[in-house]
Amino acid sequence: MKYDYLIVGQGLAGSIMAYQLIKRGKSIAIIDEGNPSSSSKVAAGLINPLTGPRMLHTWRAEQLFPYLKEFYREVEKKVNAKFFTDKTIYRPFRTIKEMNDWDGRDVLPKYQNSIKQICDAGTHANHINDEFGGVEVNGFVLDTSVFLEAMRNYFMEKCAFFTQRFDELALKVSDTSVIYNKLQADNIIICSGYQIGNSALFGWLPMAPVKGEMLVIKMEKQFETIYNRSCFIIPLGKGLYKAGSTYNRYDLTDTPTTEGKNEICQKLDALLNMKYEVVGHRAGVRPGTAPRRPLMGFHPEHPQVSVFNGLGTKGISLAPFFSNQFANCLIDGNNLDEEVDIKKYYSLYFNQHSQKN
Questions:
Q1: Do residues 29 and 180 lie in contact, with contact meaning Cβ atoms separated by under 8 Å?
Q2: pTM of the shown model
Q3: Residues in the chain with pLDDT < 70?
Q4: pLDDT tens digit string along 240-262?
Q5: Residues contacting residue 183 through CB under 8 Å, at least 6 positions apart
Q6: Which of 30, 106, 192, 325 has a beta carbon 3.0–4.6 Å from 115's, enabling a disulfide?
């Protein structure tokens, strides 16, 4: 059988891209090796419209957030699973200056959908050090493990699914199609995460992968608010919480480290005012990019070969909106956003290949 699209990778990017194309009536085959330590499976799942030390709106928040809310709720109904939850995120102020800087910001129109309220000092003192008060933000959490498992089950029914490692050397690209072993498709989309850096097809893209480690901690006190200052603490239920994360650009393995654990614990000790026990520790490598933007588009010499990758630390927020844009580009020929279109990096590809020749 010949498919419309062959998708490599069933992480966050591959799953959402496949869903968008199936929704548009396209036939899909997916290849995924089932790595339990993929960044998508290890991801915290936190969706925060306000980020960074100054708590500014994340890039394209006005487009991303309305779309992602509708998208994840639509998918929940489609696959009959629950993985997307509204959550309050509390960001404590570090200093009096931070507190003063935020005075009155919650009534500004551009912040009204994001900010729940500004809290006085001590509002959350039962759980954390809260001497200056802070901001309660309207956020969300995606349970990535439940999401990916539900999507996998959905794909098993809706398309061809192959659990195996993708070998790029076995891929044959012609003028009209691609052939991988016995699979034939009109197009192939590479959604393989940070490993795309080793690809002969797309290894020239400006990837900047970063390792992240995360702990699971247990506490006697239970709360539902997400706390986020230097590190995040996300409730899982039954006294368990995710806590993290680290950012390491030099160790690109998925092996948890003592250094990573100690770094997170130091941040937890500064934030929490209660004892905790570490009961789990995981690590994964995020597919970050040098420009801190997703990378998508077509190979410079093979238009039937494309990439949807580089979603990085904010992939849960970015993937729904930009997968929709890319699906419209693939099917209807719509233009891609210049900030994410890999066309601007074609010179890297041609420079690399001219040097080899």
A1: no
A2: 0.94
A3: 37, 106, 353-357
A4: 999 999 999 999 999 999 999 99
A5: 3, 6, 29, 31, 160, 162
A6: 106
